[in-house]
Amino acid sequence: MGKLVECVPNFSEGRRPEVIEAIVEEVKKVKGVKLLDVKPDASHNRTVVTFVGEPQSVKLAAFNACAKACELIDMEQQQGGHPRVGATDVIPFIPVKEVSMEECVQLANELGSEIAGKLGIPVYLYEEAAKVTNRKRLPDVRKGEYEGLKAEISNPERHPDYGQPKMHPTAGATVVGARQFLVAYNINLGTNDLSIAKRIADSIREVKGGFKYVRAMGVMLEDRDVAQVSINMVNYTGTPLFRVFETVKSEAARYGVSIIGSELVGVTPLQALLDVAEFYLRLENFDRKQVFEENLVED
Predict the structure, then answer these.
(1) Where does this protein have coiled-coil stretches (predicted)?
(2) Counting CB atoms within 10 angstroms of each CB, which of 174, 219, 240, 243 has the fewest?
């Protein structure tokens, strides 16, 4: 492949396998696109799909998956533990190879226009594609979630970037953007006390004075009766995973709580994991070429 763009759409369905498969099938159908990962989460009622390919093919796959989600997911019935504004909640484009961020911004604009024009779903642009300063951060765009946006979308300050200022009757709205790699990382606590997870999340969130590039919230995994610190690392080199993990572990200990596990959602850059290995193994003068598989990758 020459130019490569990654796309990581999040769909507001994690409990119906047949719906998830139908959406993913739309990605598989597109020539020149490689499906990398499908991560359904029943507790959050959300699925994260990751695929990569040539820019226009990736855009087509994203549109087709969004159209299928529009057909199969009814936001008037949907419930889940993760913030969301629509059936296809968010579609980010990430430059991978021989593609600039500006090209990904252009893709976001093209896709946003198509989703609004062909599907009747209002679209908001975020991160590098944001047209409005206070819409750069995804949490700001999602303020109030589906229910709140539905009540406020007619207000001028909440008008979409593409489409009419009204929600699609079943699919809601969609957020499209361009950004760098994001590591979605969740830490599960040995407690069902949600307030502890929320306090720990506040201690590491950038907006609460925590770590730069870290967004976090406390949620419940109802099927496991476990509280979770759900984290988005928007710059894993600026704030590495091990630093956040150690802080969460320390904060949890204050409440007499242990960490029972953690998880990565979707695919993750190798360097993010190598940084963790280097820290915990106290490796000296480590070079990624010491990883066997790295020497098998063709230039």
Answers:
(1) none
(2) 243
- Which residues are bridge partners to 91 per DSSP? 176
Judge if 82 and 50 occupy the same domain. Answer: yes
pLDDT tens digit string along 218-236?
999 988 999 999 999 999 9
Q: What is the pLDDT of residues 10-39, one digit of tens each?
A: 999 999 999 999 999 999 999 999 999 999
Residues 89 and 14 in one domain: yes
Residues of 258-275 as b/e, b for ≥16 C-beta within 10 angstroms? eeeebeebbbbeeebebb
pLDDT at 297 > cutoff 80: no
Given a contact cutoff of 8 angstroms between Cβ atoms, the answer to whether 115 and 160 are in contact is: no
Residue 147 — very low, low, confident or very high, per pLDDT cuts 50/70/90? very high
pLDDT tier at 51, thresholds 50, 70, 90: very high
**Is residue 273 located within the same domain as residue 148?**
no
Parent domain of 91: 4-178
| CATH number reported for the structural domain that contains residue 16 in this entry | 3.30.990.10
Residue 282: give its domain's CATH number.
3.30.70.670
Residue 231, strand partner residues? 185, 216
Residues annotated as catalytic are: 82
Q: What phi and psi values does residue 175 have, to the nearest 5 degrees?
A: -110, 125
